[in-house]
Amino acid sequence: MSNVCVFDHPLILHKLSILRDETTSVKEFRELVSEIAQLMCYEATRDLPLEEVDVKTPVAVAKCKRIAGKKLAIVPILRAGLGMVDGIMAMVPNAKVGHIGLYRDPVTVEPVKYYYKMPPDICERDIFVVDPMLATGGSASAAISFLKEDGAKHIKLLSIIAAPEGIERMQQDHPDVDIFVAALDEKLNDHCYIVPGLGDAGDRIFGTK
Protein backbone atom coordinates (compact mmCIF):
# COMPACT_ATOMS: atom_id res chain seq x y z
CA MET A 1 0.00 0.00 0.00
CA SER A 2 2.75 2.41 -0.97
CA ASN A 3 0.29 5.13 -2.00
CA VAL A 4 -1.81 4.91 1.21
CA CYS A 5 -1.08 7.07 4.25
CA VAL A 6 -2.81 6.00 7.49
CA PHE A 7 -2.40 8.72 10.12
CA ASP A 8 -1.08 7.94 13.59
CA HIS A 9 -1.02 11.47 15.01
CA PRO A 10 -2.31 11.55 18.59
CA LEU A 11 -4.66 14.50 17.96
CA ILE A 12 -6.30 12.74 15.01
CA LEU A 13 -6.64 9.46 16.89
CA HIS A 14 -8.13 11.22 19.93
CA LYS A 15 -10.68 13.14 17.86
CA LEU A 16 -11.52 10.00 15.89
CA SER A 17 -12.37 8.12 19.09
CA ILE A 18 -14.97 10.78 19.93
CA LEU A 19 -16.22 10.84 16.33
CA ARG A 20 -16.96 7.10 16.46
CA ASP A 21 -18.96 7.34 19.71
CA GLU A 22 -22.67 6.86 19.07
CA THR A 23 -23.50 9.41 21.80
CA THR A 24 -21.57 12.25 20.12
CA SER A 25 -23.96 15.09 19.24
CA VAL A 26 -24.54 16.36 15.70
CA LYS A 27 -22.83 19.67 16.55
CA GLU A 28 -19.75 17.99 17.98
CA PHE A 29 -19.64 15.39 15.20
CA ARG A 30 -19.71 18.11 12.55
CA GLU A 31 -16.95 20.05 14.30
CA LEU A 32 -14.78 16.94 14.67
CA VAL A 33 -15.09 16.04 10.98
CA SER A 34 -13.90 19.54 10.09
CA GLU A 35 -11.05 19.45 12.62
CA ILE A 36 -9.82 16.02 11.48
CA ALA A 37 -9.94 17.15 7.85
CA GLN A 38 -7.84 20.18 8.76
CA LEU A 39 -5.20 18.01 10.43
CA MET A 40 -5.19 15.60 7.48
CA CYS A 41 -4.71 18.49 5.07
CA TYR A 42 -1.51 19.43 6.89
CA GLU A 43 0.07 16.10 5.87
CA ALA A 44 -1.55 15.85 2.43
CA THR A 45 0.02 19.18 1.41
CA ARG A 46 3.52 18.21 2.54
CA ASP A 47 4.80 17.85 -1.03
CA LEU A 48 3.66 21.25 -2.31
CA PRO A 49 6.56 22.97 -4.11
CA LEU A 50 8.17 26.00 -2.50
CA GLU A 51 10.05 29.00 -3.83
CA GLU A 52 12.46 31.31 -2.02
CA VAL A 53 11.40 34.92 -1.46
CA ASP A 54 12.93 37.92 0.28
CA VAL A 55 10.82 39.31 3.11
CA LYS A 56 11.71 42.60 4.79
CA THR A 57 11.23 42.28 8.53
CA PRO A 58 11.47 45.24 10.96
CA VAL A 59 15.12 44.24 11.46
CA ALA A 60 16.51 42.93 8.14
CA VAL A 61 15.70 40.96 4.99
CA ALA A 62 14.87 37.30 5.60
CA LYS A 63 15.16 34.48 3.10
CA CYS A 64 11.77 32.75 3.34
CA LYS A 65 9.81 30.00 1.62
CA ARG A 66 6.37 30.34 0.05
CA ILE A 67 4.20 27.93 -1.88
CA ALA A 68 5.22 28.27 -5.52
CA GLY A 69 1.94 29.49 -7.00
CA LYS A 70 0.32 26.07 -6.81
CA LYS A 71 -3.38 26.03 -7.64
CA LEU A 72 -5.49 23.80 -5.40
CA ALA A 73 -9.06 22.56 -5.60
CA ILE A 74 -11.21 20.73 -3.06
CA VAL A 75 -13.87 18.43 -4.48
CA PRO A 76 -16.33 16.96 -1.95
CA ILE A 77 -18.48 14.00 -2.93
CA LEU A 78 -22.00 15.02 -1.95
CA ARG A 79 -23.29 15.07 0.59
CA ALA A 80 -21.02 13.85 3.39
CA GLY A 81 -17.90 15.27 1.76
CA LEU A 82 -19.19 18.77 2.46
CA GLY A 83 -18.37 18.22 6.13
CA MET A 84 -14.63 18.16 5.36
CA VAL A 85 -14.47 21.29 3.20
CA ASP A 86 -14.33 24.04 5.84
CA GLY A 87 -11.49 22.35 7.72
CA ILE A 88 -9.35 22.13 4.60
CA MET A 89 -10.30 25.66 3.51
CA ALA A 90 -9.02 26.92 6.86
CA MET A 91 -5.58 25.66 5.82
CA VAL A 92 -5.72 26.64 2.13
CA PRO A 93 -8.24 29.52 1.92
CA ASN A 94 -7.44 30.33 -1.70
CA ALA A 95 -8.44 26.89 -2.95
CA LYS A 96 -11.40 26.63 -5.32
CA VAL A 97 -14.22 24.18 -4.55
CA GLY A 98 -15.93 21.87 -7.01
CA HIS A 99 -18.81 19.48 -6.26
CA ILE A 100 -19.71 15.99 -7.44
CA GLY A 101 -23.10 14.43 -6.68
CA LEU A 102 -23.55 10.69 -7.22
CA TYR A 103 -26.32 8.17 -6.68
CA ARG A 104 -26.31 4.41 -7.14
CA ASP A 105 -28.40 3.05 -10.03
CA PRO A 106 -30.78 0.45 -8.52
CA VAL A 107 -30.44 -1.87 -11.53
CA THR A 108 -26.76 -1.66 -12.48
CA VAL A 109 -25.59 -0.71 -8.94
CA GLU A 110 -23.14 1.67 -10.63
CA PRO A 111 -22.63 5.28 -9.49
CA VAL A 112 -24.49 7.82 -11.63
CA LYS A 113 -23.50 11.49 -11.77
CA TYR A 114 -26.41 13.83 -10.98
CA TYR A 115 -24.39 16.98 -10.24
CA TYR A 116 -20.98 18.10 -11.45
CA LYS A 117 -19.65 21.64 -11.11
CA MET A 118 -15.92 22.44 -11.27
CA PRO A 119 -13.72 25.52 -11.52
CA PRO A 120 -13.05 26.20 -15.22
CA ASP A 121 -9.32 25.53 -14.78
CA ILE A 122 -9.75 22.26 -12.86
CA CYS A 123 -7.30 20.44 -15.16
CA GLU A 124 -4.53 22.82 -14.01
CA ARG A 125 -5.10 22.27 -10.29
CA ASP A 126 -3.95 19.82 -7.64
CA ILE A 127 -7.19 18.27 -6.46
CA PHE A 128 -8.24 16.91 -3.06
CA VAL A 129 -11.29 14.66 -3.44
CA VAL A 130 -12.90 14.41 0.01
CA ASP A 131 -15.42 11.94 1.44
CA PRO A 132 -15.44 10.90 5.11
CA MET A 133 -16.04 7.20 4.38
CA LEU A 134 -14.24 5.04 1.81
CA ALA A 135 -16.40 1.90 1.93
CA THR A 136 -16.71 -0.05 -1.34
CA GLY A 137 -14.73 2.63 -3.16
CA GLY A 138 -17.31 2.83 -5.94
CA SER A 139 -18.26 6.48 -5.45
CA ALA A 140 -14.68 7.68 -4.96
CA SER A 141 -13.49 5.76 -8.02
CA ALA A 142 -16.32 7.13 -10.17
CA ALA A 143 -15.75 10.70 -8.96
CA ILE A 144 -12.06 10.49 -9.82
CA SER A 145 -12.87 9.00 -13.23
CA PHE A 146 -15.14 11.97 -13.98
CA LEU A 147 -12.37 14.36 -12.98
CA LYS A 148 -9.87 12.58 -15.20
CA GLU A 149 -12.32 12.81 -18.10
CA ASP A 150 -12.24 16.56 -17.45
CA GLY A 151 -8.45 16.59 -17.84
CA ALA A 152 -7.44 16.42 -14.15
CA LYS A 153 -4.07 14.76 -13.56
CA HIS A 154 -2.99 15.51 -9.97
CA ILE A 155 -5.55 14.02 -7.59
CA LYS A 156 -5.45 12.92 -3.94
CA LEU A 157 -8.22 11.26 -1.96
CA LEU A 158 -8.85 12.18 1.68
CA SER A 159 -11.19 9.96 3.72
CA ILE A 160 -11.50 9.79 7.49
CA ILE A 161 -12.26 6.06 7.68
CA ALA A 162 -11.60 3.42 5.02
CA ALA A 163 -12.37 -0.25 4.58
CA PRO A 164 -9.84 -2.62 2.97
CA GLU A 165 -12.33 -3.21 0.15
CA GLY A 166 -12.39 0.51 -0.69
CA ILE A 167 -8.62 0.78 -0.66
CA GLU A 168 -8.34 -2.24 -2.96
CA ARG A 169 -10.90 -0.81 -5.40
CA MET A 170 -9.12 2.52 -5.53
CA GLN A 171 -5.73 0.92 -6.10
CA GLN A 172 -7.13 -1.19 -8.92
CA ASP A 173 -8.94 1.67 -10.65
CA HIS A 174 -6.61 4.58 -9.87
CA PRO A 175 -3.13 3.43 -8.83
CA ASP A 176 -1.83 6.96 -9.50
CA VAL A 177 -3.99 8.53 -6.76
CA ASP A 178 -2.52 8.91 -3.26
CA ILE A 179 -4.95 8.00 -0.47
CA PHE A 180 -4.94 9.63 2.98
CA VAL A 181 -7.05 8.11 5.77
CA ALA A 182 -7.32 8.68 9.51
CA ALA A 183 -8.14 4.99 10.11
CA LEU A 184 -8.18 1.75 8.15
CA ASP A 185 -10.95 -0.38 9.65
CA GLU A 186 -11.61 -4.11 9.66
CA LYS A 187 -14.13 -4.79 6.87
CA LEU A 188 -17.53 -4.06 5.33
CA ASN A 189 -20.66 -5.73 6.70
CA ASP A 190 -23.47 -7.19 4.60
CA HIS A 191 -24.98 -3.71 4.15
CA CYS A 192 -21.64 -2.24 3.00
CA TYR A 193 -21.17 -0.29 6.24
CA ILE A 194 -17.62 -0.01 7.52
CA VAL A 195 -16.97 -2.09 10.67
CA PRO A 196 -16.47 -0.77 13.33
CA GLY A 197 -16.84 2.54 11.46
CA LEU A 198 -19.07 5.31 12.80
CA GLY A 199 -22.40 4.76 11.07
CA ASP A 200 -23.71 6.97 8.25
CA ALA A 201 -21.43 10.01 8.14
CA GLY A 202 -23.89 12.13 6.14
CA ASP A 203 -26.73 11.51 8.58
CA ARG A 204 -24.51 12.25 11.57
CA ILE A 205 -23.09 15.45 10.02
CA PHE A 206 -26.48 16.87 9.02
CA GLY A 207 -28.68 15.37 11.75
CA THR A 208 -30.95 13.54 9.33
CA LYS A 209 -31.19 10.36 11.38
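the 2nd protein, sequnce then structure:
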Amino acid sequence: MLAPTVRHLAFVRDDGQPLDFIPGQFLQVHFHYEDGSATKRSYSVATIHDHALGPGENVEIAVSYVAGGAATKLFEALPEGGRIEASGPYGRFCLGAADANQRYLLIGTGTGITPYRAMLPQLAQAMTERGIEVVLLFGARRPEELLYADDFRAFATAHPGFRFVPCFSRDLPTDPHPDVRHGYVQTALAEFAPDPARDIAYLCGNPLMVDACFEALKTAGLPVPHIRREKYISGK
Protein backbone atom coordinates (compact mmCIF):
# COMPACT_ATOMS: atom_id res chain seq x y z
CA MET A 1 0.00 0.00 0.00
CA LEU A 2 1.46 3.34 -1.09
CA ALA A 3 -1.24 5.24 0.79
CA PRO A 4 -4.37 4.29 2.78
CA THR A 5 -6.37 3.85 -0.45
CA VAL A 6 -3.67 3.32 -3.12
CA ARG A 7 -1.85 0.07 -3.86
CA HIS A 8 1.26 -0.51 -5.98
CA LEU A 9 0.99 -3.67 -8.09
CA ALA A 10 3.65 -5.35 -10.23
CA PHE A 11 2.93 -7.80 -13.06
CA VAL A 12 4.82 -9.69 -15.73
CA ARG A 13 3.41 -10.69 -19.09
CA ASP A 14 2.33 -14.33 -19.14
CA ASP A 15 3.95 -14.83 -22.56
CA GLY A 16 7.34 -14.02 -21.02
CA GLN A 17 7.87 -10.97 -23.21
CA PRO A 18 8.80 -7.53 -21.86
CA LEU A 19 6.41 -4.60 -22.12
CA ASP A 20 7.80 -2.09 -24.60
CA PHE A 21 6.28 1.23 -23.52
CA ILE A 22 7.12 4.92 -23.59
CA PRO A 23 7.09 6.57 -20.15
CA GLY A 24 3.79 8.41 -19.79
CA GLN A 25 1.73 5.75 -21.56
CA PHE A 26 -1.07 3.75 -19.94
CA LEU A 27 -2.61 0.28 -20.00
CA GLN A 28 -6.26 -0.70 -20.05
CA VAL A 29 -7.31 -3.49 -17.70
CA HIS A 30 -10.30 -5.45 -19.00
CA PHE A 31 -12.78 -7.26 -16.72
CA HIS A 32 -16.51 -7.86 -16.23
CA TYR A 33 -19.16 -6.53 -13.91
CA GLU A 34 -21.14 -9.03 -11.84
CA ASP A 35 -23.87 -8.98 -14.50
CA GLY A 36 -21.34 -10.18 -17.07
CA SER A 37 -21.03 -6.93 -19.02
CA ALA A 38 -17.53 -5.96 -20.11
CA THR A 39 -15.72 -2.89 -18.83
CA LYS A 40 -12.18 -1.53 -18.52
CA ARG A 41 -10.06 0.88 -16.49
CA SER A 42 -6.94 2.81 -17.49
CA TYR A 43 -3.72 2.90 -15.44
CA SER A 44 -0.48 4.68 -16.25
CA VAL A 45 2.62 2.51 -16.27
CA ALA A 46 4.64 3.42 -13.17
CA THR A 47 7.68 1.27 -13.99
CA ILE A 48 11.08 2.93 -13.68
CA HIS A 49 13.22 1.47 -16.44
CA ASP A 50 16.18 2.68 -18.47
CA HIS A 51 14.74 2.31 -21.96
CA ALA A 52 18.19 2.73 -23.51
CA LEU A 53 18.80 -0.83 -22.30
CA GLY A 54 15.64 -2.19 -23.93
CA PRO A 55 12.20 -3.08 -22.55
CA GLY A 56 11.92 -4.04 -18.91
CA GLU A 57 10.18 -7.07 -17.40
CA ASN A 58 7.96 -5.63 -14.67
CA VAL A 59 4.70 -3.87 -15.46
CA GLU A 60 3.92 -1.65 -12.46
CA ILE A 61 0.77 0.39 -11.79
CA ALA A 62 -0.80 2.28 -8.90
CA VAL A 63 -4.46 1.49 -8.21
CA SER A 64 -6.82 3.73 -6.24
CA TYR A 65 -9.30 1.77 -4.15
CA VAL A 66 -12.83 3.21 -4.33
CA ALA A 67 -15.48 1.96 -1.90
CA GLY A 68 -17.85 -0.33 -3.77
CA GLY A 69 -15.85 -0.09 -6.96
CA ALA A 70 -15.84 -3.00 -9.41
CA ALA A 71 -12.15 -2.50 -10.24
CA THR A 72 -11.39 -2.30 -6.52
CA LYS A 73 -13.07 -5.68 -6.00
CA LEU A 74 -11.01 -7.12 -8.85
CA PHE A 75 -7.67 -6.00 -7.44
CA GLU A 76 -8.50 -6.64 -3.77
CA ALA A 77 -9.35 -10.25 -4.61
CA LEU A 78 -6.31 -10.77 -6.81
CA PRO A 79 -3.82 -13.14 -5.10
CA GLU A 80 -0.08 -13.14 -5.64
CA GLY A 81 0.37 -14.89 -8.97
CA GLY A 82 -3.14 -13.89 -10.05
CA ARG A 83 -3.85 -13.00 -13.67
CA ILE A 84 -5.56 -10.03 -15.31
CA GLU A 85 -6.33 -9.14 -18.92
CA ALA A 86 -4.83 -5.91 -20.22
CA SER A 87 -4.15 -4.13 -23.50
CA GLY A 88 -1.80 -1.35 -24.53
CA PRO A 89 0.26 0.59 -24.06
CA TYR A 90 -1.64 3.65 -25.26
CA GLY A 91 -1.33 7.43 -25.03
CA ARG A 92 0.85 10.36 -25.98
CA PHE A 93 1.43 11.92 -22.55
CA CYS A 94 5.16 11.50 -23.07
CA LEU A 95 8.29 13.64 -23.17
CA GLY A 96 8.86 15.01 -26.66
CA ALA A 97 11.93 13.74 -28.49
CA ALA A 98 12.28 17.13 -30.17
CA ASP A 99 11.70 19.24 -27.04
CA ALA A 100 14.15 22.14 -26.84
CA ASN A 101 12.90 23.66 -23.58
CA GLN A 102 15.08 24.63 -20.65
CA ARG A 103 12.70 23.47 -17.92
CA TYR A 104 9.89 20.97 -17.37
CA LEU A 105 7.10 21.82 -14.97
CA LEU A 106 5.52 18.49 -13.95
CA ILE A 107 2.30 18.86 -12.00
CA GLY A 108 0.28 15.98 -10.57
CA THR A 109 -2.21 14.91 -7.93
CA GLY A 110 -3.03 11.44 -6.60
CA THR A 111 -2.22 8.58 -8.94
CA GLY A 112 -1.63 11.20 -11.64
CA ILE A 113 1.93 11.21 -10.34
CA THR A 114 2.68 7.73 -11.74
CA PRO A 115 3.70 8.82 -15.28
CA TYR A 116 6.38 11.06 -13.79
CA ARG A 117 7.87 8.15 -11.86
CA ALA A 118 8.28 6.25 -15.13
CA MET A 119 9.86 9.33 -16.74
CA LEU A 120 12.71 9.63 -14.22
CA PRO A 121 15.39 7.88 -16.37
CA GLN A 122 14.45 10.04 -19.37
CA LEU A 123 14.58 13.19 -17.23
CA ALA A 124 18.01 12.19 -15.92
CA GLN A 125 19.22 11.81 -19.50
CA ALA A 126 17.77 15.18 -20.54
CA MET A 127 19.38 16.89 -17.55
CA THR A 128 22.74 15.39 -18.46
CA GLU A 129 22.53 16.03 -22.21
CA ARG A 130 20.64 19.33 -22.34
CA GLY A 131 21.19 20.78 -18.88
CA ILE A 132 17.47 21.19 -18.28
CA GLU A 133 15.81 21.84 -14.94
CA VAL A 134 12.75 19.97 -13.66
CA VAL A 135 10.20 21.01 -11.05
CA LEU A 136 7.74 18.36 -9.85
CA LEU A 137 4.73 19.80 -8.00
CA PHE A 138 2.80 16.99 -6.33
CA GLY A 139 -0.52 17.70 -4.64
CA ALA A 140 -1.91 15.59 -1.80
CA ARG A 141 -4.08 16.22 1.21
CA ARG A 142 -1.78 14.69 3.83
CA PRO A 143 1.79 13.32 4.05
CA GLU A 144 0.58 9.69 4.12
CA GLU A 145 -1.00 10.22 0.67
CA LEU A 146 2.27 11.24 -1.00
CA LEU A 147 2.79 8.42 -3.51
CA TYR A 148 6.33 7.30 -4.44
CA ALA A 149 7.79 10.07 -2.28
CA ASP A 150 10.97 8.10 -1.51
CA ASP A 151 11.65 7.63 -5.24
CA PHE A 152 11.26 11.33 -5.98
CA ARG A 153 13.28 12.44 -2.96
CA ALA A 154 16.13 10.08 -3.85
CA PHE A 155 16.08 11.35 -7.44
CA ALA A 156 16.19 14.97 -6.23
CA THR A 157 19.18 14.16 -4.01
CA ALA A 158 21.04 12.56 -6.92
CA HIS A 159 20.12 15.26 -9.46
CA PRO A 160 20.51 18.89 -8.30
CA GLY A 161 18.51 20.12 -11.31
CA PHE A 162 15.39 18.33 -10.03
CA ARG A 163 13.11 19.87 -7.38
CA PHE A 164 10.43 17.81 -5.68
CA VAL A 165 7.77 20.13 -4.24
CA PRO A 166 5.02 18.36 -2.27
CA CYS A 167 1.94 20.54 -1.76
CA PHE A 168 -0.37 19.54 1.09
CA SER A 169 -3.87 20.99 1.11
CA ARG A 170 -4.62 19.87 4.68
CA ASP A 171 -1.94 18.51 7.03
CA LEU A 172 1.77 19.30 6.83
CA PRO A 173 4.56 16.90 7.89
CA THR A 174 5.83 17.40 11.44
CA ASP A 175 9.28 18.38 10.13
CA PRO A 176 8.70 19.69 6.59
CA HIS A 177 11.50 19.97 4.03
CA PRO A 178 12.08 23.55 2.74
CA ASP A 179 10.44 22.59 -0.57
CA VAL A 180 7.17 21.52 1.08
CA ARG A 181 4.24 23.88 0.48
CA HIS A 182 0.88 24.26 2.22
CA GLY A 183 -2.00 24.57 -0.24
CA TYR A 184 -2.90 23.43 -3.72
CA VAL A 185 -0.47 22.86 -6.59
CA GLN A 186 -2.27 25.44 -8.72
CA THR A 187 -1.51 28.04 -6.05
CA ALA A 188 2.15 27.00 -5.69
CA LEU A 189 2.63 27.08 -9.47
CA ALA A 190 2.86 30.89 -9.54
CA GLU A 191 5.95 30.77 -7.31
CA PHE A 192 7.90 29.11 -10.12
CA ALA A 193 7.06 31.84 -12.65
CA PRO A 194 6.07 29.82 -15.73
CA ASP A 195 7.96 31.23 -18.70
CA PRO A 196 6.87 30.66 -22.31
CA ALA A 197 10.46 31.16 -23.47
CA ARG A 198 11.80 28.19 -21.51
CA ASP A 199 9.06 25.94 -20.10
CA ILE A 200 7.01 22.92 -21.13
CA ALA A 201 4.37 21.83 -18.61
CA TYR A 202 2.69 18.49 -17.93
CA LEU A 203 -0.57 18.23 -16.00
CA CYS A 204 -1.94 14.93 -14.72
CA GLY A 205 -4.54 14.14 -12.11
CA ASN A 206 -7.68 15.73 -10.75
CA PRO A 207 -9.63 17.39 -13.61
CA LEU A 208 -10.28 20.56 -11.59
CA MET A 209 -6.55 20.92 -10.91
CA VAL A 210 -5.69 20.25 -14.55
CA ASP A 211 -8.15 22.90 -15.75
CA ALA A 212 -6.98 25.48 -13.19
CA CYS A 213 -3.29 24.98 -14.02
CA PHE A 214 -4.03 24.99 -17.76
CA GLU A 215 -5.67 28.41 -17.47
CA ALA A 216 -2.85 29.73 -15.27
CA LEU A 217 -0.20 28.53 -17.73
CA LYS A 218 -2.05 30.04 -20.70
CA THR A 219 -2.32 33.33 -18.79
CA ALA A 220 1.45 33.16 -18.20
CA GLY A 221 1.89 32.96 -21.97
CA LEU A 222 2.70 29.28 -22.53
CA PRO A 223 1.45 28.15 -25.95
CA VAL A 224 -1.11 25.35 -25.81
CA PRO A 225 1.24 22.78 -27.45
CA HIS A 226 3.60 23.33 -24.50
CA ILE A 227 0.88 22.40 -21.99
CA ARG A 228 0.32 18.64 -22.07
CA ARG A 229 -2.64 17.25 -20.14
CA GLU A 230 -4.10 14.01 -18.89
CA LYS A 231 -7.08 13.95 -16.52
CA TYR A 232 -7.52 11.18 -13.96
CA ILE A 233 -10.93 10.22 -12.65
CA SER A 234 -11.28 7.37 -10.15
CA GLY A 235 -13.93 5.17 -11.74
CA LYS A 236 -15.92 2.50 -9.94
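Residues 114-130 form the longest helix (17 residues). Residues 6-90 form a domain with the Elongation Factor Tu (Ef-tu); domain 3 fold (CATH 2.40.30.10).
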